[in-house]
Every structure is written in C-alpha cells, then in structure tokens.
Amino acid sequence: MTPDSATAAWRCVRPSCGKALAHRTRFCPYCGAAQAASAGAPAAPPAPPAALPSPGAPIQQAAAAPRRQAPAAAPSSKAAAPAAKPAAGRGPSLRTLSWVFVVLLAAWLWLRPSRLDKQVERAATMAAACQTSGARAELARLKELEASPRQLARIEAALAAARPACERPARAATSSAQTLIADARRAMAAGDFDKAVNRMEVCAAMTGAPECAPVLRKARRLQEASARCRASGGAWSGERCAD
Question: Hey, which end of the chain has fewer CB within 10 Å, N or C?
Fold first, then answer.
C-alpha cells in the first residue's frame, strides 16, 4: 500500500489493482493482496528551494556568530539589599529624664542642711551650754518660721536634757545672790556703802541674777549722796544728810 501524492490517499501495492484505499490496511479489500508493512505515513510536501542571494548583498558568514549571553538578571531589590541593621537602642525618653531630674532635686533638697537646720543646731548648742533663755528665743523664732515638727522636737529635747545640769548652778547662783544681797543691805543700814557696792558688783558679775542690779544701783546712789553730804560738812544719818 503506497500513498498517492495527488490525492493524499492510500493505494493498493498490486499494480493490476492499484485502487485507492480509504485508510491504511494490511490487505487490499478489492484484490486481497497483502500491503507493505513498512509503508509509512504520507510524506510531507517537499520544502521550497532556498532563495539565492542577490549579487549585491553581502555574503553571510557560514558559521553563525555565537549568541551573546544574556546578562545575568539583576538580583531583586529585596534580595540584594543588605540586611537592615537592628536599630540602635534608643536612649531614655525626655519624660524619663525629667522624672529622674525631679527625684534627684527632691533628694538634694531633703538631704542638704537648710538654714532652719543650722538654726536648730545653734539652739541645741545653746541649750547644752545652759543658755536656756537664748535657746527658748530661737525655739520661738523657729515656730514663727514654720519649722518642721522634727526640728522643733530637736530643740525641746536638748532643753529637757540640759535642764538638770543647768538648774543646779542656777539654784546655787540664786542662793549666792540672795546671800550677797542680804550682806549689801546690812552694809547700807550700817552706812557702809562701799561694802554694799562691792557685794552687789560681785553678785552681778558672778551669779548674773537679775535681783542684783537694782540693789547695786541703790548702793551706788547712797554712796555718792553720803560722800556729798560729808564733803559739805553735814552728817549722814540713815539714808539722808542732816545739816
């Protein structure tokens, strides 16, 4: 069975038959002749002859120029971009710094010795030195300045601690002052004003008792009056000059 190129159909291989066949088969349905088993599919039409180059056209090289290798594709921006460095740790915020400053300022104000603290220490020192009146004056001044209860309690504790030691000399001084005042009055009654003045000067200097000052002034006044009386030729009697 051979293909017929004109009709593109199969034909019987037996020359005496040669009838067209509708499809490929092993035996001819008309004469029964066996068809060639090696017969293939209808051959493709021959390719048209290549066109000859024109005389003026340049002769192409026999060997095709090697194809230029396409440039490697640029890596994607995401893949090529270096890994982003982790952001550096941010410093403390402004709000945090503000709180730290406020806390440090409050601690400094709380711990630093204030002007009131210095006054408190001075009053406590005066109380320990038995300067009770001065310490009490400082205590009253600090109350006016609205010192803290802790500061006021510090002075009061110093006064209470010094009271036993300070009262003993005060009692002794009072007793000594009373003795000296009594001696001065007896001396003035006897007309010995020099002795009275001497006793009252010792009383004022040694004891510091306030009772000594008025007696000292009286003794000096009588001392001067008696001296004028005798200078004028009069006689002093009691506390007056007799002509």
Answer: C
| Mean pLDDT value of segment 74-90 | 51
CA angle 43, 47, 49 (to 5 degrees): 145
CA distance 205 to 194: 17
pLDDT in tens, 85-118: 555 556 678 888 888 888 888 776 665 556 788 8
As given in the structure block, the two tokens for residue 228 are 């004028």
* pLDDT at position 168: 78
Q: Between 125 and 52, where is the model more confident?
A: 125
* C-beta separation of 142 from 123 below 8 A: yes
CA distance 44 to 228: 177
User: 101: alpha, beta or left, given left = phi > 0 and alpha = psi -120 to 50?
Assistant: alpha
The helix/strand/coil state of 185 is helix
Give the phi and the psi of residue 189 in degrees, each rounded to 5: -65, -30
Residue 213 contacts residue 177 (beta carbons within 8 Å): no
The full DSSP string for 76-123 is: PHHHHSPPPPPPPPP---HHHHHHHHHHHHHHHHHHSPPHHHHHHHHH
Q: Which residue has the tokens 């730290």?
A: 100
CB atoms near residue 128 (< 10 Å): 15
- Buried-state track 84-103, b at ≥16 Cβ within 10 A, e below 16: eeeeeeeeeeeeeeeeeeee
Query: Which residue has better confidence, 108 or 181?
Result: 181
The pTM score is 0.35
